[in-house]
Amino acid sequence: MITAVRTRAEAAAADTLARFRALTPVRLVGDLLVMVAAILLDLWPGPWGEVKASGWTLVAYVAAYVVLMPLRHVFPAVVLVGAAAIPFGGPALMVLVSYTAGRRIESWVKAVVTMAFTFVVVVLLWDWDQRPLDIEPVYGMLILVTIFGVGVALPFLVGRYLAQREALVRAMQDREERMRGEHKLLSRQVRLRERSRIAQDMHDSLGHRLSLISVHAGALALDPTLGEKQREAIGVLRTAALTGMGELRAIIGVLRAEDGPDDDPATRTAESIDSLVSDARKAGVLVSLVRGGQSHPLPSRVSHAAYRVAQEGLTNAAKHAPGAAVQVTVKYEPDALVVEVRNNPCRNGSPEGAPGVGLIGLTERVRVAGGILHVGALPSGGFRIAAVLPYEETPLPDEPEDEDEPESPRGIRKWAGVGSIAGASLVLTVIIGGFTYLGAQPVTEVVSQENLDRIQVGQSESDVLALLPSGDEPLVADGERRSQASPEPEGARCVYHITDEQSYLAKGTRVVRFCFRDGKLVEKKIHVQRTGS
User: Fold this and answer.
1) CA–CA distance, 229 with 127 (Å, rounded to integer)
2) Which pTM value belongs to this model?
C-alpha cells in the first residue's frame, strides 16, 4: 500500500515537473493574459459580477485568483471543485478551470466523478433564498442545471475533446515516424540483399575465370621450351591472377558482410555436414550422423540451407541441453531433402532454455531456399529441428506480410472524442428540453380591464373565476406577486393576477387581488409590486 502511494506520488511529481519544463515564454505570457482577463471580468470592474469588491476584499480575491489559476494545471480536479465552492468565484474563473480540467484529467472515471462532485457542491451552496425573483423550485433547478451546463459542463467537455484529439494526432505522428523508420530498415535490407546477389554473381563468374587464368598460367610455366624471361612473365601473370582472386574474395566479404563469415555457400554445403558433425564430436558433443537415400545434386541455396539447419541444431543442443545425445539425419527422399537434428533431454534434468534468435534467421534461410522448417519439443522431452528442402531451384519468394503490424491509431482510438461529443449533446438536450417543457406550460394571461370592471364584490366565486385567466405563470411564483400586498382578510382565500394596464411611472407591476370567503368575493384590491424590492 505504501509502495503504491509512493509510486503514484513520484509519478505525479514527475508529471508536474515535466509540465513546468514544457512552459515556454509564449505560453507563460498567454497564461498571464488569461489570468488578468478573468480578474477583470469577475472582480474589477466586474461586468459579470453582482457585487463589486473593493479595498482589502478585492486584494484577497485577486490573491485567490492568482493562486488558483496556475494550480489548475497541476491539480485540475481539486481546483475545479474548489472554484465551485468559493463564494466569489465568477463565471470566467469557472469556465477556465472547467476547460483546463477537461484537458488535464485523463481517466474518464475520474472525469465523471469530478463533474458529479462539482455539481453536488454547486447545488448545496446555491443560495435559494437570495434570488431576484421568487422562482418555483423546479424552475430554479432547471436554471441551475442550465448555468452549470453552460458554464462548467460544456467547457469541460470541449477541453476533454481537444485533449483526446491531440492524443490521437500524437499517436498518428508516432506511427508515421515508426513507419518511416521501418521503411528505412526495409530499404537497407533490400540493398543488403542486392549486395548478396552481386557477390554471388561475382563469385560465380569472375572467380571462375580468374581460377582458369591461374591454372592455365601454372600449366604454361611448366613448358620446357619457354625461356627464363617468359617463365618470369608467366609467374607474374599467375601471381596477378591469384592476387585478383584474393581481392575478389575481400570485396565479396564486404558486399555480403551481413551474412557473417560462416555463410559462404561454396564451403558450407550439405556435403560439409560430415565435417560439422566431426568438429562437434571433437568438442565433446555426443552426436551421431545418419545418412539415407540416394544422393541428389542440390542447388547452392538448398545445400547451404541444409548445412545451416544442422549447424543451428547442434548449436542449440550444445547451448540448451549440454551433455545430451544428439542425432543428425540427412535423408534424400524421392522428392525432397530432409535434414533433422534432435536431442534428448538435458542430463541434469534442468529445463531447456528458450530457442534463440538464430531460429528466426534459419526460418528465413529455409524459406528463401523454398523449403519448410519445423521446430518444436519432442514428447520425450527433447527438441527437434527439421527442414524439408526441394531438389529444384526455386525463385525467391515474396516477403511475407508482417503479422505483428500494430493496429492503426484509428482502430485503437476510434472512439476518441465520442464520449465528449455525446456528453455535450446530452447537456444541450437537457437544457433545450427543459426550456421546451417550460414553453409548453400554460401561461397566465393578464386580467383585462373589461373583466376587471365586470367583477364586483359580492359576486359568487364561480362567476368571478370564469372571468379570470386560467393557468400559472411558469417562472414567477404566486409569492412574488403577493409579497408587497396588504394583509389578506381573515379567513379568506386570495388569488393574485397581473392587470393588462401597466404604467412605467409606477416603477413596478400592477397586481390585482381577489379574496373569497363562503363562496363569495369579499375583496378586489390592486397594489403595485415594486421591482427589486
Assistant:
1) 121
2) 0.48
Buried b (16+ CB within 10 A) or exposed e, 90-103: bbbbbbbbbbbbbb
Angle between the N-to-C axes of helices 91-104 and 108-125, in degrees from 0 to 180, rounded to the nearest 10: 160
pLDDT, one tens digit per residue, over 137-194 is 666 777 788 888 888 888 898 888 888 888 888 888 888 888 888 888 877 776 776 6
**Tell me, what amino acid is at 438?**
L
Q: Model confidence over 517-526: pLDDT tens digits?
A: 999 999 999 8
| 400 secondary structure, DSSP code | P
* Contact in structure between 372 and 353 (CB atoms under 8 Å): no
Distance of CA 305 to the CA centre of its chain: 43
**Could you give the count of Cα atoms lying within 13 Å of 220 in the half-sphere of its Cβ?**
17
d(CA 132, CA 231): 124
**Mapped to the 3 state alphabet, what secondary structure does 429-450 carry?**
HHHHHHHHHHHHCCCCCCECHH
Strand segments, DSSP code E, in 31-72 are none
Given a cut of 90, whether residue 132 has pLDDT beyond it is no
Neighbour tally for 297: CB within 10 Å = 7
Cα(144)–Cα(142) distance, integer angstroms:
5
pLDDT tens digits, residue range 431-441? 787 777 666 65
Query: Which residue in 365, 363, 342, 334 sits closest to 290, CA to CA?
Result: 342
Integer Cα distance of 165 and 193 in angstroms: 42
Measured from the Cβ of residue 148, the count of other Cβ atoms closer than 10 Å reads 22
Q: Say whether pLDDT at 416 is over 80.
A: no
What is the rounded distance in angstroms from the CA atom of residue 376 to the CA atom of residue 354? 11
Neighbours of 288 (CB within 10 A): 11
Spatial separation of the C-alpha atoms in residues 226 and 456, rounded to whole Å = 157
From the list 78, 131, 128, the residue with the least C-alpha distance to 105 is 78
Spatial separation of the C-alpha atoms in residues 77 and 74, rounded to whole Å: 9
Rounded (5°) CA angle 405-409-410: 110
> Which of 372, 353, 380 has its CA nearest to residue 305?
372
Half-sphere exposure of 205 (CA within 13 A, CB side): 6
Q: How many residues appear in the chain?
A: 533
**Are 521 and 461 a contacting pair, CB within 8 Å?**
yes
| Angle, in degrees to the nearest 10, between helices 76-85 and 108-125 | 10
In this structure, the dihedral spanned by the alpha carbons of residues 197, 203, 209 and 211, taken in order and rounded to 10 degrees, is 180
Task: Please tell me the distance from the alpha carbon of residue 171 to that of residue 165, in angstroms, as a whole number.
Answer: 10
Instruction: Please give, one letter per residue, the 3-state secondary structure of 488-510.
Output: CCCCCEEEEEEECCCCHHHCEEE
489, amino acid identity: P
- What is the rounded distance in angstroms from the CA atom of residue 214 to the CA atom of residue 200? 20
Please, is 199 exposed, middle or buried when counting C-beta atoms within 10 Å of its C-beta (0-12, 13-18, 19+)? buried
Read off the C-alpha cell for 107. Answer: 481517466
Spatial contact of 530 and 465, defined as CB atoms under 8 Å apart: no
